[in-house]
Every structure is written in C-alpha cells, then in structure tokens.
Design brief:
Its cofactor is pyridoxal 5'-phosphate. Tetramer of two alpha and two beta chains. Keywords: Amino-acid biosynthesis, Aromatic amino acid biosynthesis, Lyase, Pyridoxal phosphate, Tryptophan biosynthesis. The protein has a domain of 237 residues: Rossmann fold. 40% of the residues lie in helices and 16% in strands. The protein contains 19 helices and 15 strands. Strands 1-4-5-15-10-11-14 form a seven-stranded mixed β-sheet, with helices on both faces. Strands 8-7-6-9 form a four-stranded parallel β-sheet, with helices on both faces. A hairpin with an 8-residue loop joins strand 12 and strand 13. Helix 6 packs parallel to helix 8 and helix 12 packs across helix 13.
Length: 460
C-alpha cells in the first residue's frame, strides 16, 4: 500500500550523497569575524603563534574565508561508519503535544561515540597524523568529546590524553571506560600532572573542575613537546566547520520531506553541534535563499549567550590561550555542577557569538529540570533517550511546537538531537527521584568574573 510523505518517519541518504566538502559560514558573513589576539601583544595572531598547538592544515581552516573546504577521502571513508546520519519526523511527539507543527530531528547519536563529536575528531586526528604528530591532549566535560577523540586517535595511531572535568569524571565513570577501551588515558581535572592543575588544587583541594581549567592543563602539556598537539572539541572555527556535515545533510533530507524548516533549533555550550545544524541554513539565507529562524538553547546555569558579555576573553582559566571576541561569563567563572557537562563552558564560539551579534540567530535559556522533563517526554514518544545536553534542544523544539499550537500555525521545526544519553542514566535516576535540583550560578562570582575581563585596545 502506498504511504504518502505525511506518514513517512525516516529520511535516509545514500553514502554517495554524503557531503564532499564542509561549509564555511565566514564566506557569507556581511561583517567579518573580529581577529583573534595574542595575549602578550594584543595584536592579531599569526599562524606561527598557533603552531605549537595545531598542525598548519587546521590553522589554515581556522582563518580561511573560502566557502567550501574539501573533506579528505580518508576522512570520508571513516565517516561512512555512521554517515549520512538519519533525519526523523517526530510523528508521535507531535501527537503527544497536539501541535499542528511538523517536528523533524537530525540524529547524531548513531556515531560510534554516540554523539556528533566524531565529525570533527576524525579530521583533527587525520590532519595531526599527516603532520607527524604522535600524541594529542584534550579536555572533555561530559565525556562525549573525549570519547570521540579517543576513537579517532586509535584509528590514526595517535596516543590520546584526556583531562576530564572532575565533576563529570565522578558522575560518569562509564564514559571514562569507553575512552580507555579506545586506548586513551583519562585524568580528572584539575590534576597533579600539570603546573596549573597543581596550583588550582593547592588553593582548592576539592575543586569540581571546569572546562576552562581542563583546557589549561591540556594546552600546557601540548606546548611542552614537539610530538604533541592539542585538540579541541568545540568553539574554534575549524571545529564548527567540520560539524557542518550535519546541516548539509539535513538540507537534502528536508527537501526530500518537502518541508524546508521555518525554525532550526540546537543546544549550545561551546557551539559545535549548534553550528553544525544551523550554519548551512544561515548561509542559505545570507545567499538569498529562504530564511529560517535560528534558535540556540543554553542552560540557565551557564548562560553565555543570554547573560554573558560580548567581549575579548581567554578560552581557558589559566590564560594560556589567545584572546577571542565572544559571549563570555568570564574565564574565571566556574559553572555549577549540573548534569549537561558538555554545556558547562564560560564562553561561546566566536563565530556563533558573531552571528548572534549580527542578528542572524536568537538565544533562550532553560533550567535543568525543564530540559529533563522535555527529554523524558521525547523518550516516551520517540524511543530515544537523549543526552542531557541534547535535552536543551528537545526543550527548545517542544516550546516552538507549543507556540505553533497556540498560534494555530503549521510550521516545520528542525532540531539536532546531538547524542544519546545511555551513559547519563544516573542523571535520569536522580531526576525521577526528585534529586535533580535546578542549579544556579553565584551572581557575585559572575559579576567578579565579568569585571576581570582582559582590557583590550579597540580593534579597527
């Protein structure tokens, strides 16, 4: 029996339809991205300034304004383990909500690591191996990035050392076990393995850690050895570039569904999966195509886009990184230990921040409890248990669907389900037991962190 498009659930692409190039939003921006500054000279950084941390191929991707960057064939071959990723129509969720809207989600939990993070871990490992690098250091919050780089490093014969934020290290032991299964070493941060880690522990022996501190530790070790480079799972331009395979595939699949999105939703911590789903649609609109509303959803306990200041700041707490202009809560800000560890970062990707400043997107913030409630609603309707980070996107999509219900509008809503929550069940157990509190940050600490932002001369 023939079933029309309105009842179709999955939209699948063939391997031959996988994107052959990543999309660079910088090519279509009406105003160029503010430069990254050297913390010593306050002048724009050059390639040599970044060379101790990254191979030159990734540095070139960081600064290029070319619209398309070819995906190397070895990277494409590994992508085929899970790409193209499926697009789903959430029929059952629509019915539960009683909305006239059509809800679609791009599901990135089908990757070996269970999230979108291998989309950039694979090319980063590839380019480092090509440059003769033997070891990579990195940080991770919830563990999805650490898992992904461990997976990628093993495929390309690289040693991987992961500094995991202490609160997540303790909350999620199975993530650590997966990293070790892939051959990496995982250390709780702050640690005794670095000068900076030891200095933090000397002052605060029970420090819960933060992504900013873990970055400082990873950067410190990477800068000490010629055979070692640093890899970052979010924030930087080349990371966001690699993630655009998500949105590029989704554009093809939404056309298959004859349902170009009126609204595109993604969760935001550092900005990688959000940029992955949103940037191709933003670029489409900038080039004269149909425009979609773009909505970033962040945690109320770490609200860089909605409460942060757009200013130059360090990417790490130890002030070892260059200065980027971004929405920031201050590099000394330590977010409370809520369970969406991947969203516990003081700053937002400069390119996402810039898009927000240009009015190309909007941002909202929700509490942990609200997002878990949305995740449970989604899981009971669609069968997939989302990661705590992804619950923010689910919450954003549900809010848009309920708005459509109130307004009597049948809009097309697309969101990125960036990963599954199979390693996060302790947080779901706490939610059902009523033990998952809505953590809030210290207003005084935020004010102090913002007051200590670096003083930067006007750029022009």
């Amino acid at each position: 029996m023939f079933r029309d498009m309105s009842t179709r659930t999955k939209y699948l692409l063939e391997e031959s339809q996988m994107p052959k190039a990543w999309y660079n939003l910088q090519a279509d921006l009406p105003v160029p991205l503010p430069p990254v500054l050297h913390p010593g000279t306050m002048q724009p950084v050059g390639p040599d300034d970044l060379a101790p941390l990254f191979p030159m191929s990734l540095i070139q991707q960081e600064v290029t304004t070319e619209r398309e960057i070819d995906i190397p064939e070895p990277v494409q071959d590994i992508y085929k383990l899970w790409r193209p990723a499926p697009l789903y129509r959430a029929h059952r969720l629509e019915k539960v909500l009683g909305t006239p809207a059509k809800i679609f989600y791009k599901y990135e939990g089908v990757s070996p690591a269970g999230s979108h993070k291998p989309n950039t871990a694979i090319p980063q490992a590839f380019y480092n191996q090509q440059a003769g690098v033997k070891r990579l250091t990195t940080e991770t919050g919830a563990g999805q990035w650490g898992t992904s780089l461990s997976f990628a490093g093993n495929l390309f014969g690289l040693e991987v050392l992961v500094f995991q934020v202490r609160v997540s290290y303790d909350q999620k032991p199975y993530r650590r076990a997966v990293m070790e299964t892939y051959g990496a070493r995982c250390v709780a941060s702050p640690s005794m393995e670095t000068v900076y880690g030891r200095s933090v522990l000397a002052e605060h022996p029970n420090h819960p850690g933060s992504l900013g501190i873990a970055i400082s530790e990873a950067v410190e070790l990477a800068a000490q050895r010629d055979d070692t480079k640093y890899a970052l799972g979010s924030v930087l331009n080349h990371v966001l570039l690699h993630q655009t395979v998500i949105g590029l595939e989704a554009m093809e699949q939404m056309q298959m569904a004859d349902a170009w999105p009126d609204v595109v939703v993604g969760c935001t911590g550092g900005g990688s999966n959000f940029a992955g789903i949103a940037f191709p649609f933003i670029g489409h609109g900038l080039r004269g195509g149909q425009k979609s509303r773009i909505v970033a959803v962040e945690p109320a306990a770490c609200p860089s886009l909605t409460r942060g200041k757009y200013a130059y700041d360090f990417g790490d707490t130890g002030h070892m990184t260059p200065l980027s202009k971004m929405h920031t809560l201050g590099s000394t800000f330590t977010p409370p230990g809520f369970h969406a560890g991947g969203l516990r970062y003081h700053g937002m990707a400069p390119l996402v921040s810039h898009a927000k400043e240009l009015g190309l997107m909007e941002a909202v913030a929700y509490t942990q409890g609200e997002c878990f409630a949305a995740g449970v609603t989604f899981a009971r309707a669609e069968g997939i248990v989302p990661a705590p980070e992804s619950n923010h996107a689910v919450k954003g999509a549900i809010e848009e669907a309920l708005r459509c219900k109130r307004e009597g509008k049948s809009e097309n809503i697309l969101f990125c389900l960036s990963g599954h929550g199979h390693f996060d069940m302790v947080s779901y157990q706490k939610y059902f037991a009523g033990e998952l509190t809505d953590e809030s940050y210290n207003e005084q600490e935020l004010a102090m962190a913002l007051a200590s932002l670096p003083s930067v001369p006007a750029q022009g």
